[in-house]
Design brief:
Order of helices and strands of chain B: HHHHHHHHHHHEEEHEEEHHEHEHEEEHH
Helix content of chain B: 55-70%
Strand order of the largest sheet of chain A: 8-11-12-5-13-14
Strand order of the largest sheet of chain B: 5-8-9-3-10-11
Number of strands of chain B: 11
Structural class of chain B: alpha/beta
Radius of gyration of chain B: 36 Å
Largest sheet of chain B: 6 strands, mixed
Shape of chain B: elongated
Oligomer: heterodimer
Structural class of chain A: alpha/beta
Helix content of chain A: 55-70%
Chain lengths: 562, 555
Amino acid sequence: MKKSTLKKLLRYIKPHSILAMLAIIFALIHVAALILAPVFIGSTIDYIIGPSNVNLTRVLNYCIYLLLAIITATFSSYLSSNFAARLSQKVIFALRIDAVKAINLSPISKIDTLSKGELAIRLTSDTERIAEGLTNTITQIFTFLALIIGTLVFMFRLNVTMALVVALLTPISVLIAALIAFFSHKLLLKQTAKEGTLASLTEEYIYSIKSIKLYNYQKIAQEKFDEQNRKIKDFGSKAVFISALTNPTTRFINGLVFACVTMVGAYLVLSEAYFSIGALSIFLAYAMQYARPFNEITNAMTEIQNSIVSAKRVFEIIDNDNAELKMHNTKLPCNKLIGKIQFKNVDFKFTDKLVINNFCLNIKQGQRIAIIGKSGSGKTTLINLLTKFFTPNSGHILIDDTNIDNIDTAILRQNIGLILQEGWIFKGTILDNIAFAKKDANKTEIIEASKKAHIYDFIVSLKDGFNTIIDHNTLSKGQVQLLCLARFFLNTPPIIILDEATSSIDARTDFLIQDALKNITKGHTSIIVAHRLETIKDADLIIELNEGKIIRQGTYAQLFNE
Amino acid sequence: MITLLKKYLAGYRIISVIGLILKLLEAIIEIFIPLIIALIIDRGILNNDFSFVMHMGFLMLGLYIAGYILAVLCQYFAAKSAFGFSFNLRSSLFKHINSLPIESLIHFKSASLNVRLNVDTNNTSTAVNRFIRLGTRAPFLLIGALIMALRLHPIMALIIFVSANIISFIVFFIMKKAAKSLKEINMGLDETANEANEAISGARIIRSLNRQDDINKKFESGRLKLKRNSIKFLNISLLASPLSYLVVNLVIVAILYFGGIFVYDGTLSQGEIVALINYMLQILNALIIIAMLAVIFNRAIVSSKRINEVLNCCTQCTTHNAYLIDSSDYIALKNITMTYPNHKTPALNNISFEFPLGKTLGIIGATGSGKTTLIEILMGFYKYEGTINMPFNSLDIGYHLQKNQVLSGTIKTNVSFGRQATDEQIYQALNMAKCDFVDDLDFAVLPHGANLSGGQKQRLTLARVFLGVILNNVKLLILDDPTSNLDHNTEKLVIDSIKNIEGITKIIISSKAKNIMDSHLVLVLDKGAIAGIDTHENLIAACSIYSQIYKLSGE
C-alpha cells in the first residue's frame, strides 16, 4: 500500500523532474561546501601558531578558499530549498485540483459518504504536510546522508582514533532522542485526543448556550469542562516535559562527545607529532556537524512518514475506480427532451436492502405527478435514479422512449430542473448564487426570479442587497430554499422535480410560490414530493409509496375523499 | 499578555521563577565551556601539560552533568507552570463566556469563541512554557558570549557584535515580510476547505445544472492564488537560514584573517581564535532561538488580545435587559422596535400589546415576520427600544427554543438538565412530549443528538421544558414552533399535552393556525409589525393574512 502511494506521488513529481534534479544537485553542492568549510578553517588555524609565527600569505589563501566555500554553500542551499519548495507547491496544487475534479466526477453514492470536516482536513493540513515532506525529502534526506558520509570520510582520513571517538559516541544521542520521541509521541497523542474532546465539548456547549443559560446549567457545564481541562493539564504537562527532555539530553550527550574529543585530541596532539591543534578544531567542528544530521534525520523521517499517511488519505479522494459514466448520446436527434417518462420494472438495492422494488410507472408529457409516503419509502431514491445519480440494479428508465443509459448524462440533466429539500448555496454574493442556474443571466432576470420566489423583499432589506455575501450560517433554512427556488425560476427545463422544495417555508409564502410554480411549469412534466397535502391537491396523479412499491394511486379526490 | 499572566499564573509563580533561575545557571555553565577549551589548548597543549588537560576535561564533564540536571528541572517546572496557567485561563474564560449576554455571544460568533477557548489559550501557554525555558537562556548566551569575546579581544568582539546585529536585522525583516503572506496563505487554506465542502454538499445541484467544469475552474483559480502566495512566502522565508549562515561564516573568515594578524602581533593566541569561533557559533544559536521566541510571542500576544476581548466584554452587564418587573397581572409591551446589525429594516417595528397572565397567547406569521425575535426580546436576549412589563424572571420561564439544543450525555441528563428530578417525573415529562422512542433513560445521546432524528430531538427538548412544569418551577411557558419537525398524528398529541397544562401563562408560536386557534388571543405578525391581535373568530373576519393562513393550513 505504501509503495503504491509513493508511486502515485511520483507520477505527480514527474512533470517537474527538472526542478527535482536541480534541487538535488544543489543540495549535493551544498553538502560538499559544508564539509569543506571546517577543513579550510582547520588549515588556516594551523598556520596561526604564535607571535611572529604566522604564515599570513597561507592564511589569506585559505581564507579565500573558505570564502568561496561559504558563498557556494549559501547559494546552493537557498537554490536547492527553493527549487524543492516550488516543486512541492506545484505537486500539492495538482493534488488539490485533482481531488475536487474527482469529487465532481465520483458517483453520488460515494459523495454521500464523505465527511466535510474530513475533506477539509485532507485538502488543507494533509496536503500541506505532503509539501513539507516532499521538500524535506529532497533537500534534507540527501543532504544529511551525504553530510554523514562525507564527514565520516574526512574524519577517518584525518585521524582514525579521533574519527572513531566521534563516530561511535554521537549516535548514542540519536538513540536516546529517538527513545524520548517514542514516549513523548504517545503522550502527545493522548494530549491531542483530550484537546479534541474539549474542543468538541466547548463547540457543543457554545452552540447550546441559550439552553444552558435558561436552565442554569452553567455550573454542571463548568464541571464537565474543567474535568476535560484538567486532563489536558495532566497529560499535556507530562507530554511536553518529556518531549522537552530531547534538547537538553542531546545537548548533554553532544557535550560529552565534545569533552571526549577535546581530551583525546589534546592527548593526540601531545603524543603524536602529526595531529595538530588545527586538526583538533576541525574535529570539534565535525563533532557538532556530525551530530546535527542524525538528530534531524529522525525528525525528517517522522515527517516523511506522516506525509505518506497524508498522501494516502488524499489519494483516497483522487482515486476513482468507478467515476460516473459519461454515456454518449446515440439515438436522440436533438438536445431538448419532451418529458415523457417510463419506469419499467426498476429494482434498486441500497446496502443489500431492496429500496425500489419492481417499480413501474408511466408519466405522460406535461403531467403533474405527486409522490407521497413515509420517510424511507423510496421517494428520493426514485429521483436519484431518474437523474442518473444512482443506477438501477435491474429494469429500465426511459425518457422520450430512450433508455436513459443512452442519453448523455449532461444533456439529461440539462433537461431536468431539480430542487431538493436540502437547499444549496455557496459562499459568494446573492447575485452569483441565483445566477448559478444560468451563466448569462442579466440583473433584470435575476430580480424577476427573486420576486417570483418571494425573496426579493428580504434581499433588498440587507445593507448590500444583491451583493451581500452569504453562506449557510447567515441564512435560515427557509431563506436558502427560497434562493434555490429563485435559481429555478431563472432557468426552467422541460422536466421538473421538486423534492420537499418548500418544506421550511411558511404556509402562506408557500401558497404564493406554488401559484408562481404552477404558472411557470404549465406544459412541463413535473414530479413533486411533498408532505403538505395542500401543495399536491391539483396533481394529475398521486402515488403513495411504501417499501419501494406503489400501494395506492389516484387523484386527490380519489385518495382523500373516499 | 501581562495582565493574563498576573491573574492566571497564580499558584505557579514560584516554580516559574525557579525555572527561570535554573535555566540561567545552566546558561552560565554553558558560557564557560569554550573558555575551558581555549585553556586546554593554550595552557595544556602548548605547555605540554597533560594532567592540566585531564583536569580541565573532567571539569568540562562535571559542568555538563550539572547543566543537564538544571536543564531537566527547568523543563519540568516550565511544563507545570504553562499547563497550570492554561488550565486556569481556559476555565475562567469558559466561565465568563457562560455569563455573557446572548447579544455579545452573537457578536463574537460561536466558531470564534471556540478558537479562543482552544487555540488561543494554547498559544499563550506555549509562550509561557518557552519563556521559562529560553527567555533567560538565549539573551544570556548572547550577551555572555559577547562579553567573553570582549574579554578575549575587543576588536574581535566588535566584529561579532556588528554581525549579530546584521543577522537579527535580516531575520526580523524576513519574518515581518513572511508574516504578511502567511496571513494570506491561511485565508487561502480556509477557502480551499470551504470550496471543497461546497462541492460535496452541492454535488446534486452542480450536476443537475452541469456546472462541474465551472466549479473546477473556480477552484483551480483560487488554488493558483494560494500556490503563488505560498511560493512568495517560501521565496522570502527560505532566505533566513542561508543568509545567517553566510554572515556567521563571513565573520569566521574575518576572525581567522585578522586573528592571524593579531596572533602574529602577539595580542591573541591560537586557542583564543578557536574560542572566538565557538562564541560566534553560540551567538548564532542564541539568535535562532530568539527569532523562534519572537514568533511564538508574537502569536501569543495576538491570542491574548483575542482572549482579553472576551474577558473584558461586559464584565459589568447582567444577562438580562433590565425590564420593568412589577407585580401586575399582565405582560405588556410598549412601542418595541428592534433592528439586527447589518439590516436596514427593523425586525420588529413599534410593537405594543398587553396580555393578561394565566391565559394562552398564540403567535403566527410568515417566515421572517419576527415571531422568534419577539420572544427572544421577551427573554431579554437582545437590546430594544421601548418598554416591557414582565412580571417574571428568567427562572420562572419554561422556554422551548426553535433550534433543538441537545447535549451529549443520556436521555436523563438531557431532560433533567441539571435539575433534581425523580425518574418518575422524567418519565412523566417524556410522556407529555410523546417521546415514545425512549426505552431507557440512560440511553447514550451523541453530541448535538446526532443519533436522534429531528423529530426525536424536538420532543426530547420539549420534555425538558415540561419537566419544569411538573416540578412547578414554571410560571410562563414559551414554545417556539414546538411541533415543526413532527408528523401530523404526533403533532396533534403534543398539542393536546400543551393544552392540558393548566394554571400557567402560555405563549405558543406556530406556523399552522390549527395549533393556536384555541388560544385566548392570537397575535398575527407581518414583516415585524402587528397585523392583528384578537380571538381566532374575530381575526378570521377582520384579518386577511390570518384568514388566508387559516384557510391554507385547514385540512
